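Postdoc handover notes: sequence design on the structure in folder B. Input tokens:
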């Protein structure tokens, strides 16, 4: 990776960790903060993730593991609540780069796309519905809730991405590094158990 991309990745990593921004907006803000041309070639997400891990190791090693565990605990509670929709955890909380500023991203694979929304209504959960870009690059419905983490003592954004039941096959393909990009409830529980 060239030095400019490395500089952007490092600046974006700081923004991701300190402000909780997602990779795309963090890269664009890093370009502006560094005074670079807005058309500068950006580092890929893997380079930013590597820089995030380095930043966490240098500046957050004493706090991040407990924050990550708290976020995974909260994710497990939501996955248990919505177990009938075959939940999978993705994003920074799954990959281990999350801090207390990170949101939780759970993909639900439903027979009926409205069934998860109805389940939230039945459970008296307030949510905001919107359309976002899903893991397959196509628009998907997202139900966003604010949920308090007992361990962190603050509200965390939990985003429930609604996919068709058959999309689960494509969701489990390994990423460019050979990693599973998301995990089911048993896999997340195993991550928590291995920490103890």
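Designed sequence:
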């Amino acid at each position: 990776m060239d030095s400019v991309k490395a500089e952007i990745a490092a600046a974006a990593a700081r923004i991701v960790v300190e402000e909780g921004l997602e990779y795309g907006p963090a890269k664009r803000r890093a370009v502006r903060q560094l005074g670079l041309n807005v058309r500068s070639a950006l580092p890929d997400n893997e380079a930013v993730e590597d820089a995030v891990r380095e930043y966490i190791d240098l500046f957050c090693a004493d706090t991040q593991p407990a924050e990550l565990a708290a976020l995974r605990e909260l994710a497990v509670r939501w996955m248990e609540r919505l177990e009938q929709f075959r939940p999978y955890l993705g994003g920074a909380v799954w990959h281990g780069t999350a801090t207390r500023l990170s949101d939780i991203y759970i993909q639900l694979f439903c027979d009926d796309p409205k069934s998860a929304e109805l389940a939230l209504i039945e459970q008296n959960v307030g949510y905001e519905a919107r359309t976002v870009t899903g893991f397959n690059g196509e628009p998907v419905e997202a139900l966003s809730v604010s949920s308090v983490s007992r361990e962190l003592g603050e509200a965390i954004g939990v985003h429930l991405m609604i996919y068709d039941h058959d999309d689960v096959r494509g969701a489990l393909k390994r990423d460019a590094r050979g990693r599973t990009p998301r995990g089911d409830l048993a896999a997340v529980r195993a991550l928590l158990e291995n920490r103890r």
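Context for whoever picks this up: The CA atoms of residues 87 and 183 lie 8 Å apart. Don't rerun without checking with the PI first.
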